[in-house]
């Protein structure tokens, strides 16, 4: 079928073509063996002309085991034949206790591609493809095949899908029909159907870094403001006498600073009333009773301006304010185990805003005012309901509750719906939950004993160059990509725009499923970012049919063109049926 080897250049063998045109056409992308004595070299047909067949050398069979990469080139007198069934099975795998069905080989129609489970899922994975290339269906089929595997029951799996469009609900909601031990959980900010569960993240579990991201901080000067706000909200959340005394102390210090400023009396009055309007207690509000010698005044009456342009009760009000000054309150320890909501956080920020160190510093005051606007914006956004402030929950309890269904059963698939969120808040929630899972896994008594797989749909919305590294010193996805594998936190990034994704994250991915991509910038980016990808692979993916992908990486012995079946049931990712809509059917 093949003639003599004319010459070998780099990793390309130029072989004489002695086939008819029909036969030669059928050889495209077929794998062949160069055999001589104790040598079996694997190659792939990449180019065919009337005279020459170009075969790219891929690896070598040693003792019936395939080794990727070619150190020894085939001899010029090697015989050339098409790969046989045993050799092909060694490359594409067989279904057993350690593998699962990915799809059918697009070249060898009677053979299935069965990668090693650990090879694919114990490493970070990237799934790229244009809109309509079959990306979402491929992800759904990938997960469905895992749970349909007759040789293994992944009852302890923890698959978290951050669903950008709410499209995976139909694909996984019936997973328990495969096996009653399998369960699915749908978390959403706005539960509408039976089985939907409310997405509730305990606000008290958010760290300084999390709150910094949630409030969209943009300057380093805002971080100490947020840090003080968190300290105050934890103290105020106790709701005891000490918390009230601290509030009065902070108000009193702010009022004294205004009283002894160089502003006009009218301006002082306006500033004092502004403070009392935003920060008030039973002792400091407009109707509080201020006891004089034989008479009383309300707090607001003490600031009436007399004919000389001064406060008529300046001595009385000064004495009243001084009673609440207690500098020891500044050093009380921050309590643990408290809980609070966004509203309480906003109140604590107001007290931070009037604190002496911030009030008299214009730069800090401006930075705090921006944060105040952000908090107020959060209070008016429905996303605030995703942050639970009604009870205290420790991290262990919260993480374990994420995989518990309404029926108190273990969910292997947790679908977190972020479809209707603003991009800004959706990104923050994905980062916060990813950080929590990573920190929880990192602190587990047994390392990597309970792996978490994070499927990030539309990953370019979250994993890109952001202000995180500038503000808090790291990006959680870059940290997970570099450290998560050893703790059992694995990223599975799904995107149609790899060019917008962090280079660090892509460089740490060990496996790739590439569906059809045509944008030249994305193709060039993949070529530059992945040193093990060849021009042949890039050319192949340009003409792939929907639902067909090229799989390569540590789970694949050679790059494989895989035709994946349509998922059953399919995700809700179909294009709009314009014709039917126009007809009014």
Q: What do these coordinates show?
A:
This protein is α/β, with parallel strands linked by helices and 585 residues long. The chain has three domains: 91 residues, Thrombin, subunit H (Beta Barrel); 261 residues, 3-Layer(aba) Sandwich (Rossmann fold), CATH 3.40.50; 175 residues, no CATH class. α8 packs antiparallel against α9 and α15 packs parallel to α17.
Attribute tags:
585 residues; alpha/beta; Thrombin, subunit H; Rossmann fold; twelve-stranded mixed sheet; seven-stranded antiparallel sheet; 21 helices; 19% strand; elongated
How would you summarize the topology of this molecule?
Layout: E1 2-9, E2 12-17, H1 21-26, E3 31-36, E4 39-48, E5 52-62, E6 65-68, E7 79-82, H2 85-92, E8 103-105, E9 112-113, H3 117-121, E10 125-128, H4 135-147, E11 159-163, H5 169-172, E12 184-188, E13 196-198, E14 201-202, H6 208-214, H7 222-236, H8 241-259, H9 265-278, E15 289-291, E16 296-298, H10 314-322, H11 342-354, H12 356-359, H13 362-379, E17 387-388, H14 395-402, E18 413-417, H15 423-442, E19 452-456, H16 468-472, H17 476-487, E20 489-495, H18 503-507, E21 511-514, H19 520-529, H20 535-541, E22 548-553, E23 560-563, H21 578-583
Parallel strand pairs: 10-20, 10-21, 11-18, 11-19, 12-13, 12-18, 14-17, 19-20
Antiparallel strand pairs: 1-2, 2-5, 3-4, 3-7, 4-5, 5-6, 8-9, 8-23, 15-16, 21-22, 22-23
Helix pairs in contact: 7-11, 8-9, 11-13, 15-17
